[in-house]
Specification:
By secondary structure, the protein is α+β, with helices and mostly antiparallel strands. It is built from 16 helices and 17 strands. Glycine binds next to loops. Belongs to the peptidase M24B family.
């Protein structure tokens, strides 16, 4: 890969991109060559079709604007993030921006003015009489492919577009007391519009967006199902290459799932957790540098993010050799009972806290049956104690959508301390974790980590498990693993 040319050096929005002086491996650009490159190009048009979901985006924008009448709202997509030196991570747009526009490209900024005057500021195509198209490795079309014109983008997303170069003047003119910015995505925007007062006005915008995203519309539910279906295929792919009688690396399994995620979706929605044996007891084990061992369990927490950035979040724990030992099965059954109990209470109006307590009580009872709890179940469950949490470690689940931990800025009274409503999608993911060094549990439990996680849609009368394509009971898991192994390895098609 090369380095950007003089066009980028002039660009005031290039913060976070490589500086001049790192062009060590690029050839020179003699003037004759530069002039030659600017000539002789035929124009092409891009065939764009309006996105069918565009009317939904317009409705969402109207809903946000209605909360802040007479104000201007600025919501950036975000910028490429440096991975190392002059290479960036693949770009993934900010979730609120995607939810309001459907835009996938970096640097875009949505400005919503009073009266439904919504404009998406984007970087237009570079003309061929400048050097950008062949010298700019971040935006040049000979580096990254054909970009949209303003008109093409507008036709595709169903929103007015304007040149990003005109944005600074627009931001300069905004009245601070009548403007709110979604901060933390675009340093240039954050600097151009200083927060008014204590920043509370901007925080209100962030939590409003999160709260409006709590209920998923039909199109979003279809997107989540799409991500979950790809995730089911990914778990199957992994089961098909997981040997019963010899060891393989956690990285191999992570890679097989990652192939499915890239092939069928955009990517994984979060770093895959592939925990063999005692690694299963480490909640966010993403080093994935261990190996499976026949006789041990394997915990896999993995989700495909689909092409529109909605993500699944699913966990399965399987016995590597194909059969749970009696003790593994006993612990597994406790976790399954807890998850089922949680799913069974979910319906509109039920409090998040009650779902949590339902799952945790079953786990605490199971811990008592295992002889692990040092106090009674009731005492362990009391607010002053919660001793059972030494082995349960986390909550029952979380909202799911464009983000794996969706709607994270919602106010606590409307989320953690509130209740679920029809159209919410959430995970139910209790687990039990016995650390290898835990001297308060019998030796045979040490190093066992089990979680079962599914993605559940709250319906008018209850809950629908969107990830029912994967097995959940211990018997089903054994039969599924055997069937996948019987079918043999496969590549995505
Ligand atoms: N799946 C990872 C998490 O929920 O934290
Ligand atoms: Mn989760």
């Amino acid at each position: 890969m090369g380095e950007q040319g003089e066009q980028r050096a002039e660009d005031t929005r290039s913060a976070g991109t490589p500086s001049e002086g790192t062009q060590s491996h690029d050839p020179d650009f003699p003037q004759r060559f530069v002039e030659f490159m600017r000539t002789g190009w035929r124009d092409t048009s891009l065939s764009v079709s309006p996105r069918p979901e565009a009317p939904q985006h317009a409705k969402r924008r109207a809903a946000v604007s209605a909360v802040f009448p007479g104000e201007t709202l600025v919501i950036p997509s975000g910028r490429a993030k440096v991975r190392a030196n002059d290479t960036e991570y693949p770009f993934r747009p900010g979730s609120d921006h995607v939810w309001l526009t459907g835009e996938h490209d970096p640097d875009a900024v949505l400005v919503m003015r009073a009266g439904g005057d919504d404009t998406l500021y984007i970087r237009p195509r570079s003309p061929r009489d400048t050097d950008e198209f062949f010298r700019d490795r971040m935006y040049g079309e000979l580096w990254i492919g054909r970009r949209h014109t303003l008109a093409e983008k507008s036709a595709e997303l169903g929103i007015a577009t304007a040149d990003l170069a005109t944005l600074p003047a627009v931001l300069d003119d905004l009245a601070p007391g009548r403007t709110r910015v979604l901060r933390g995505y675009d340093p240039a925007v954050d600097t151009a519009v200083r927060p008014a007062g204590d920043g509370m006005r901007d925080a209100e915008l962030a939590w409003t967006l999160s709260e409006l995203r709590l209920v998923k519309d039909e199109w979003e539910i279809a997107q989540l199902q799409d991500a979950i279906d790809a995730t089911v295929r990914g778990f199957e792919d992994v089961a098909r290459v997981l040997p019963a009688d010899r060891t393989v690396s956690e990285r191999l399994l992570e890679g097989v799932f990652g192939l499915r995620a890239r092939h069928d979706g955009n990517d994984v929605g979060y770093s895959s957790i592939v925990g063999a044996g005692p690694h299963g007891a480490i909640l966010h084990w993403i080093h994935n540098n261990g190996r499976t061992a026949p006789g041990e369990l394997l915990l896999m927490d993995m989700g495909v993010e689909n092409r529109n950035f909605y993500t699944a979040d699913v966990t399965r724990t399987v016995p590597v050799n194909g059969r749970f030992t009696p003790l593994q099965r006993q612990v597994y059954d406790i976790v399954h009972r807890s998850q089922q109990a949680g799913m069974d209470v979910i319906k509109p109006g039920v409090k998040f806290a009650d779902i949590h307590q339902t799952c945790m009580r079953v786990l605490a009872e199971g811990l008592a049956d295992l002889g692990v709890l040092p106090v009674s179940v009731d005492e362990a469950m009391s607010k002053e104690s919660t001793l059972y949490r030494r082995w349960t470690l986390h909550g029952f689940g979380h909202m799911l959508g464009l983000d794996v931990h969706d709607c994270a800025h919602a106010r606590s009274e409307n989320y953690r301390k509130g209740s679920v409503q029809e159209g919410y999608v959430l995970t139910v993911e209790p687990g039990l974790y016995f650390q290898p060094e835990d001297e308060l549990v019998p030796a045979e439990l040490r190093g066992i980590g089990i979680r079962i996680e599914d993605d559940v849609l709250v319906t008018a009368s209850g809950a629908r498990n969107l990830s029912a394509g994967l097995p959940r009971t211990a018997d089903e898991v054994e039969a599924w693993l055997a069937a996948q192994r019987e079918a043999g390895p496969r590549l995505p098609e």
